[in-house]
Design a protein that fits this description.
This protein is mainly beta. The protein has helices at 70-74, 94-97, 129-134, 167-170, 223-228; strands spanning 2-3, 6-7, 13-16, 19-22, 39-40, 54-58, 66-69, 78-86, 119-128, 144-149, 165-166, 176-181, 184-185, 195-197, 210-216, 230-231, 247-248, 255-258, 264-266, 269-278, 284-291, 298-299, 301-302, 312-320, 323-333, 358-362. It is built from five helices and 26 strands. The relative contact order is 0.15.
Length: 363
């Protein structure tokens, strides 16, 4: 398939709306290979080059406006962050298959029906956003930082997608402008030449193809924090969040998934099933698993070292006998937070993180 002039190999991907979702499976490596990373944006992919690319810094929260080149950016001290990037709508179809909720209730938003594959892990390299903004002088009164991408969508502003960050998160030392992904220049579909990476927060804040950053005293209200990436429903009365129509989606919730098709088919016998658990600022330090509802929870083996922002790989041994089975996994992080057993439905189908059944047919 061609996306904006670049060829994207679709083997192992499923096209869902404007996204490419990889089949969620066990990876051979801890980091997700760039070519296997999920893709979510509107066509076409912007065609940019480092020679002509510019980043504008402006707004009433800065001492002076500034335009910087890619060479200016690359000349700042480097910083690397290992972190999960996950779409806010990942696991969305579980609202339907597990909870029986209808995802088609909002005519104003296109629902991308993510299964389990809208997540990946990468080593992002670049420079701290705080160091970049320091070039223009951040005023004490500055409260919000809004990155603006160079891609255009029908549902959003005419000159690029955008979503504001609170000052503290924007200036966090691990919030970076990245220009490498797993040691390579950013692929075109992942924001070349420069994108934001906001670890611990849902993917919509990690704006790709950066072209402008606005620093303001007042909070900007845009489609992504008023109608698109907000939790709507009886649990979130609109009048409490106006002018937004619900509560903003920000941090990743704690969740876990088996690295198997959903549903899965396996042969009888002993299996070492694997999966991925992840959270936000706290490392996932424990994963339990159970089968068929009649077996008490057992601790899974943690295959990777728990750390903040990254996923924890886990494994569980299972003796599969012929028939239909249901397995479940349950994650706990270093703060003691656990996956909930149930969650309220929201109209956008965002951040499903309940402990969920994983059907497996053994034949």
């Amino acid at each position: 398939m061609t996306r904006g002039g670049y060829v994207k190999v679709e083997a192992g991907f499923e096209r869902i709306g404007g996204a490419l979702e990889p089949r969620f499976k066990r990876q051979k490596t801890y980091f997700t290979p760039n070519e296997d990373f999920f893709v979510c944006h509107s066509d076409p992919t912007p065609r940019l080059d480092t020679a002509t690319w510019r980043l504008e810094l402006l707004g009433d929260g800065l001492e002076r406006p500034r335009t910087i080149t890619f060479d200016d950016l690359a000349g700042l001290p480097r910083h690397t962050v290992d972190c999960v990037l996950e779409c806010a709508g990942n696991h969305r179809t579980l609202f339907e298959s597990v909870m029986g909720e209808d995802l088609s209730r909002r005519a104003d938003v296109t629902i991308t029906r993510w299964h389990l594959g809208g997540v990946g892990m990468a080593r992002w390299g670049g420079v701290r956003l705080a160091d970049v903004l320091a070039l223009a002088g951040v005023k004490d009164a500055a409260a919000h930082v809004m990155p603006v991408g160079l891609d255009i969508t029908r549902e959003e502003d005419e000159d690029g997608v955008r979503v504001p960050l609170p000052r503290d998160k924007a200036l966090d030392p691990d919030t970076i402008i990245a220009f490498t992904m797993n040691g390579q220049p950013l692929p075109p579909d992942h924001g070349f030449p420069a994108r934001l990476i906001v670890p611990g927060w849902v993917g919509t804040y990690s704006i790709k193809w950066l072209g402008r950053i606005e620093v303001t005293r007042e909070r900007p209200w845009v489609p992504r924090n008023t109608v698109m990436y907000v939790l709507m429903g009886p649990q979130w009365p609109e009048q409490e969040f106006a002018p937004a129509r619900g509560a903003p989606v920000t941090r990743h919730p704690i969740r876990s998934s088996l690295a198997l098709p959903l549903p899965a088919r396996l042969a009888p016998g002993r299996h070492r099933l694997t999966g991925y658990a992840r959270g936000n600022d706290h490392a996932v330090t424990q994963v339990a698993w159970g089968a068929d509802g009649g077996v008490s929870w057992q601790d899974a083996e943690l295959v990777s070292t728990p750390a903040r922002y990254v996923w924890t790989q886990f494994a569980c041994p299972w003796d599969a006998v012929p028939g239909e089975h249901v397995l479940m996994t349950w994650a706990t992080d270093a703060s003691g937070a656990t996956q909930p057993m149930t969650i309220p439905f929201n109209l956008g189908g965002y951040v499903f993180n309940a402990v969920h059944p994983h059907p497996i047919v053994v034949a």
